[in-house]
Amino acid sequence: MKKIFLFCILLTLMPIICLGDNEVFVVKEISLEMVKCSAGSFMMGSPEDEIGRFGNEQLHKVTFTKPFYIGKYEVTQNQFVALMGSNPSLFLEDNNPVETLSYEEAKAFCNKLNMKYANILPQGYKFDLPTESQWEYACRAGTNTALNNGKNLTSEEFPCQNLDEVAWYYKNESEPTHIVGQKKPNAWGIYDMHGNVWEWCRDWYGDYTSEEVVDPNGADEGSRRVFRGGSCASRVNFCRSAIRLSSSPDTRRPDLGFRVALVQID
Fold first, then answer.
1. What's the whole-number mean pLDDT along residues 34-63?
2. 186-207 as b/e: b if 16+ CB within 10 A
3. Residue 143: phi, psi to the nearest 5?
């Protein structure tokens, strides 16, 4: 009994916890859970016959030589307020995603995480927004279908039963945004990567290459930042794994939030 008690205490203190095959990094003070994504390769973008496809989704191979972690959930309003002391959101609910914030405000949250929790970070890692390639790799979780539940869209029209399983989107939602983690997670245990709110990524927007890329960081410069995943206000085809939009970094939308990544320092 004493050993079990000591083990439970140890778990509460350790920021990295192994649960079966899944490794999770936890910042307990703000209930931030990060899921490990192992190094590997995937096909980024979409095939030409995918329903709802756009022309900026050229299929190409991406390889990650280093693992990273990504938020199990979108950053909530509770978490944002706990760290930043204010809430920019239009739709005020503690456990809904934070929204109506700019790219720089999302980055500021990551920077403050780095300052406040430097003592528990794995050596050589820092908090940041995910690149869009990291985002899509984590979203797909080994799938190559339009959705991360291993299914494709049945059509571009409403409703889409396959999308209903994993996303809050236009026509199946009753609220502007929803409590995180209510829909089915992907195979890696990550929630809401389809729908609820769009999510800022680190990259400047740029065209894909047709060649294989290794540990990409996106375009070197630009005027627009990428966001991914669709939202509760999105049509069916805007909630696919490959969808990519972009806007000025100072854009604030009530359906645009973010999730955090934990990445190795270059």
1. 97
2. bebebbbbbbbbbbbbbbbbbe
3. -90, 160
Query: pLDDT tens digits for 192-245?
Result: 999 999 999 999 999 999 999 999 999 989 999 999 999 999 999 999 999 999
Structure tokens at 180: 């995180």
Instruction: Decide: 137 and 64 in contact? Cβ < 8 Å.
Output: yes
- Measure the CA–CA gap between 153 and 172, rounded to whole angstroms: 15
Q: How far apart are CA 208 and CA 195, in angstroms?
A: 23
Q: In angstroms, rounded to a whole number, what is the distance separating the alpha carbons of residues 78 and 87?
A: 9
pLDDT in tens, 24-40: 999 999 999 999 999 99
Tokens of 166: 């994993």
- Residue found under tokens 């095959």: 21
> 54-63 burial, b if ≥16 CB within 10 A, otherwise e?
eebbebbebe
Are 46 and 146 a contacting pair, CB within 8 Å?
yes
Strand partners of residue 263: 126
Residue 171 token pair: 């026509």
- 3-state secondary structure at position 32: strand
Closest CA to 240 of 174, 166, 184, 185: 166
In angstroms, the CA 221 to CA 218 distance is: 9
Q: d(Cα 71, Cα 84) in Å, to the nearest integer?
A: 18
For the record, the structure tokens of 207 come out as 């065209």
Nearest to 156 by CA among 255, 243, 74: 243
Q: How far apart are CA 213 and CA 216, in angstroms?
A: 6
